[in-house]
Design brief:
Elements: E1 7-10, E2 17-19, E3 46-50, H1 59-66, E4 72-79, H2 82-91, E5 94-102, E6 107-114
Parallel strand pairs: 3-4
Antiparallel strand pairs: 1-2, 1-5, 4-6, 5-6
Protein name: EEP domain-containing protein
InterPro entries: Endo/exonu/phosph_ase_sf
Organism: Klebsiella variicola
Length: 116
Protein backbone atom coordinates (compact mmCIF):
# COMPACT_ATOMS: atom_id res chain seq x y z
CA UNK A 1 0.00 0.00 0.00
CA UNK A 2 1.48 3.33 -1.06
CA UNK A 3 1.63 6.07 1.58
CA UNK A 4 -0.05 9.38 0.72
CA UNK A 5 2.91 11.78 1.06
CA UNK A 6 2.28 15.51 1.22
CA UNK A 7 3.10 18.61 3.22
CA UNK A 8 0.99 21.51 4.42
CA UNK A 9 2.05 25.15 4.06
CA UNK A 10 0.87 27.89 6.42
CA UNK A 11 1.38 31.58 5.54
CA UNK A 12 -0.14 34.53 7.41
CA UNK A 13 -3.32 35.82 5.80
CA UNK A 14 -3.63 32.88 3.39
CA UNK A 15 -5.50 29.60 3.62
CA UNK A 16 -3.52 26.46 4.41
CA UNK A 17 -2.15 24.90 1.22
CA UNK A 18 -1.47 21.23 0.51
CA UNK A 19 1.92 20.79 -1.17
CA UNK A 20 2.56 17.82 -3.42
CA UNK A 21 5.61 15.53 -3.15
CA UNK A 22 8.81 16.42 -5.10
CA UNK A 23 8.03 14.04 -7.99
CA UNK A 24 4.87 16.00 -8.74
CA UNK A 25 7.00 19.00 -9.70
CA UNK A 26 9.12 17.18 -12.31
CA UNK A 27 8.17 19.59 -15.12
CA UNK A 28 8.43 22.77 -13.05
CA UNK A 29 11.60 24.84 -13.15
CA UNK A 30 13.22 25.57 -9.77
CA UNK A 31 12.65 28.91 -8.06
CA UNK A 32 16.39 29.45 -7.62
CA UNK A 33 18.83 28.60 -10.40
CA UNK A 34 21.57 26.16 -9.40
CA UNK A 35 24.38 27.91 -7.54
CA UNK A 36 22.27 30.87 -6.39
CA UNK A 37 22.84 31.62 -2.68
CA UNK A 38 19.77 31.21 -0.49
CA UNK A 39 20.88 34.02 1.79
CA UNK A 40 22.99 37.16 1.45
CA UNK A 41 24.27 36.60 4.99
CA UNK A 42 27.52 34.72 5.40
CA UNK A 43 25.83 32.20 7.69
CA UNK A 44 22.42 30.63 7.90
CA UNK A 45 21.22 30.23 11.49
CA UNK A 46 19.23 27.05 12.15
CA UNK A 47 17.38 25.96 15.29
CA UNK A 48 16.33 22.32 15.75
CA UNK A 49 14.00 21.49 18.64
CA UNK A 50 11.81 18.57 19.63
CA UNK A 51 8.78 20.54 20.73
CA UNK A 52 7.09 17.34 22.03
CA UNK A 53 3.62 18.27 20.78
CA UNK A 54 3.69 21.59 22.64
CA UNK A 55 3.30 19.89 26.04
CA UNK A 56 5.76 22.24 27.76
CA UNK A 57 3.84 25.01 29.56
CA UNK A 58 5.92 27.90 28.19
CA UNK A 59 6.67 26.52 24.70
CA UNK A 60 5.73 29.75 22.88
CA UNK A 61 8.06 32.00 24.89
CA UNK A 62 10.87 29.42 24.72
CA UNK A 63 10.48 29.07 20.94
CA UNK A 64 10.27 32.84 20.45
CA UNK A 65 13.44 33.36 22.52
CA UNK A 66 15.54 30.58 20.99
CA UNK A 67 14.26 31.17 17.46
CA UNK A 68 14.53 34.97 17.40
CA UNK A 69 17.72 35.02 15.30
CA UNK A 70 17.16 31.80 13.34
CA UNK A 71 16.58 31.86 9.59
CA UNK A 72 15.26 28.30 9.72
CA UNK A 73 13.55 26.48 12.59
CA UNK A 74 13.01 22.71 12.42
CA UNK A 75 10.45 21.47 14.94
CA UNK A 76 10.19 17.75 15.63
CA UNK A 77 6.87 16.38 16.95
CA UNK A 78 5.05 19.60 16.09
CA UNK A 79 1.29 19.25 16.39
CA UNK A 80 -0.67 21.62 14.14
CA UNK A 81 -2.83 23.14 16.82
CA UNK A 82 -4.39 26.54 16.13
CA UNK A 83 -1.91 28.02 18.66
CA UNK A 84 1.16 26.70 16.81
CA UNK A 85 -0.15 27.74 13.39
CA UNK A 86 -0.97 31.23 14.74
CA UNK A 87 2.50 31.48 16.36
CA UNK A 88 4.24 30.30 13.17
CA UNK A 89 2.37 32.63 10.84
CA UNK A 90 2.81 35.60 13.20
CA UNK A 91 6.57 35.16 13.64
CA UNK A 92 7.78 33.58 10.37
CA UNK A 93 7.21 34.08 6.64
CA UNK A 94 6.09 30.50 6.09
CA UNK A 95 5.65 27.22 7.90
CA UNK A 96 5.64 23.82 6.19
CA UNK A 97 4.72 20.56 7.91
CA UNK A 98 4.91 16.94 6.84
CA UNK A 99 2.31 15.11 8.93
CA UNK A 100 3.76 11.82 10.22
CA UNK A 101 1.01 10.86 12.68
CA UNK A 102 -2.62 11.83 12.43
CA UNK A 103 -3.80 12.24 16.00
CA UNK A 104 -7.50 12.65 16.89
CA UNK A 105 -7.61 16.42 16.35
CA UNK A 106 -4.30 17.62 14.87
CA UNK A 107 -1.59 15.95 12.77
CA UNK A 108 1.89 15.72 14.26
CA UNK A 109 5.22 15.70 12.43
CA UNK A 110 8.20 17.80 11.41
CA UNK A 111 7.47 21.50 10.85
CA UNK A 112 9.87 23.93 9.18
CA UNK A 113 9.58 27.65 9.93
CA UNK A 114 11.35 30.09 7.61
CA UNK A 115 12.08 33.73 8.42
CA UNK A 116 13.96 34.61 5.23
Amino acid sequence: MRKNTYAMRYVAGQPAERILPPGAFAGVSPVYPAGTPLSSDEKIRVLVWNIFKQQRAEWQSVLKNFGKDAHLVLLQEAQTTPELVRFATSNYLAADQVPALVLPQHPSGVMTLASA
